[in-house]
């Protein structure tokens, strides 16, 4: 038998029969499908596990970001907002995941935005070309107040006549008012204007509503005790002394009496709680340099007019039609989260000497009239032996005491969360620390020359201009 026939008979035909039978056989197909499905389930489960881990990590990172921005945006906390965010991430062991912190900090608001991310190693989907997954987090928080109470305190002392300083102040104040008192801020922002020199002219509208030991009608200033600068409130139970009306400065060669210690003209009076831009501008434009400098007295009045104890006086002014009804019940309580209280305190110099007539020469109607008629030094030079001059007057304030009282009232205001901006306009180096100490922070103090004053006022006003009613 040929070899080919033998191979066909004993190999090819049996193999063909086995293959045909195998092709027709369906045993084991379910097992193969089951194995395939199991492999797919394992793969899908692995992918789901990676995504579950991704979501867990994202939730942890997002939670830390949310807590951090809420704490940092709190206007009551005084730490740097960026530092607050960084501390939250550090204490959570996530410092390396913090990507970016943006702080938008205005006078009446704070917005904090945080971006964070980390790369998570995958266990399953890395086999498909994804060895890591990015875990992102984005948070933003804002705290904003709806109302602002401003005390604008302007130095009008005699040195303001130098280098057109008062003119620069008038220009800067106009810019400030134009920027702050916009239509969209109507009935939200009040400005109390406090011009000061050696004293502050409260004016009859305010003084008539205070508990004051009145002595005359020539002028309207209060002589505070030193202890009054330890707190900012003017208490109705306290009986304040009216300032003597007289003039001591100048050398006494003539009977000059135009610069009495207490300012007495209408345009020198405090204007309380106003939003009338034109009226405020007109008053500021009328100011003229005069007398000495008592920064601490300007600051005392500025702070007192932001304290709730002043509310009864203001409400009486509202009822009498002197203050807009929208400002009834101002100053707001310190616990009012919708109201920001701020002082802008400006000077071109330093606290100065100030004298008073001894009480035994200022205790009768005839003596009040007498010292209204005569300059103190002129009278003493003409009528009193120089050996007895000291019996007539005493030294009430000097620079050292004035700086101490300024520090005390500024500290009392800051303790009540009043924001203080201070501006040293062409001041000497030795006078910078007193104004820096008064400001709420180093960034709240401006030392400026010439036209830089307008930029300082503009920078402060821009932040108030961010004000919007958000509730």
TrEMBL record:
Native source species: Sulfitobacter pontiacus
Q: Which residues form the signal peptide?
A: none
Q: Which residues cross the membrane?
A: 29-51
Q: What is this protein called?
A: Putative Flp pilus-assembly TadE/G-like
Query: Keywords in UniProt for this one?
Result: Membrane, Transmembrane, Transmembrane helix
Please list the residue ranges annotated as the Putative Flp pilus-assembly TadG-like N-terminal domain. 29-73
- One Pfam entry for this protein is Tad
What Gene3D superfamilies does its record include?
Answer: von Willebrand factor, type A domain
- Top-level division of the source organism's lineage: Bacteria
